[in-house]
Amino acid sequence: MLAGVSGIALAFSWLVYAVRVFGGFATPLALAIYAAPVAWMGLQIACFTGALASVRALPFALSAPIVFTAVEFLFPSLFPWRLAHTQYRVPVLLQSGDLAGPSLLSFTMVWVAAAIAATWSMLRAAAPSRAVTTGRIARAVLPAAGLLVALLGYGVWRLAVVRQARAAAPAFRAGVIQGNIGIERKGNRSLFTRNLDEYRALSRQVAPAVDLLIWPETVVQQHIDVRTSILPPAEHPFPDAPRPLVFGGLGATWIGGQRRLFNSAFLVREDGRVAGRYDKRVLVPFGEYMPFGERFPKLRELSPATSNFTAGVEAVVLAATPQARIAPLICYEDVIPGPARDAVAKGATLLVNLTNDAWYGPTAEPVQHQALAIWRAVETRRDLIRATNTGLTSAITATGEVLAELPLFEGAALPVEVRLLHGSTIYGVAGDLFAWTVVAAAAVMLITRRRAR
After folding, report:
1. pTM of the prediction?
2. Rounded to an integer, what distance in angstroms lies between the CA atom of residue 240 and that of residue 236?
3. Which of 239, 244, 253, 246 is nearest to 278 (CA)?
4. What letter does residue 320 receive in the DSSP assignment?
């Protein structure tokens, strides 16, 4: 438990800043809110060690990877960080993501570590007599090493295949704009027009060389009626846009006599016609909504800055061109696999994430965010464009490699050429079948041990 809490506390220290700025909580309350998820997420390691101690040791040091992968997959966490995510800079290891998401690589990493630990334990126990045999060491190490070699071989092969597929796929040029608008400026109504002017100026720099302009999450702060089909010049964020524009904005409508607000992505043509809209489905608690706020309105008084968004209901594909069918993912939605898989199942050929990570300040969060997002490209075998307000704005290939990237906290435009890919993956169709198989194996181990006792 101590190992889990200390590691999580360091990795997610940016939560304090986010809760204060995003949620508007006072510092003491922000620290208390921070302590709760840290303690909860740290419990995952305690669950793993406790469960491992409760099962029989399997041959080939298999107990640890089975229990760890099962706990990692099942444990409910606001930030679904997996052990495999630490390898986001090693493309050859990422490729198994199109088979089983991150679970297979997590399993392999723990199995290799367990095999090394088992070998070390045998050597120490046999040190006085040197009785340990090469055969025992081989039985402990070779199966895990074999799986690692298989994953490396698969990675080398898939890298070559997907790179070749990308080279043959249709090209699509996008201009991704990072305005670097700070939280105070972004929330100041008197600066709304000035903020948009900066996005327009950056867009004009790259517009002649691209097919589509992309702005980040909630760039447009004025409410946009979701029923509108054409944005009049007075409401259009870029009335003379020389290219179609995807931007994040606030969709608004009336439902059941109540005004509802959505965190939305809009696709608008040069003539102002709204060609599509997506409403974010996975909202962030204490920032985009107050948990139990509908039932207990007094809770909202604790955090006046917390928004009251309504969640969208379905995946949407935005047709920028007949071939460029965009899967919009807003903020947190590129951290989890579901939204990307749902959109690709509907025919998306490109993933586009709109994010505003300015809420997290100069912390590790933007890097961690992108480290998780990279897996969505590999799992679906789609290129991914990340349009962020303050960074990291980037283009990621279907192999999980960063094609281009803008520095943090710098206003700039990023022209990129991505590829429009088709087809499905094993993970896209079967989902977490491997993880659930490991869960079943862990359950059998626990049940067998209980009956033996």
Report:
1. 0.89
2. 9
3. 246
4. S
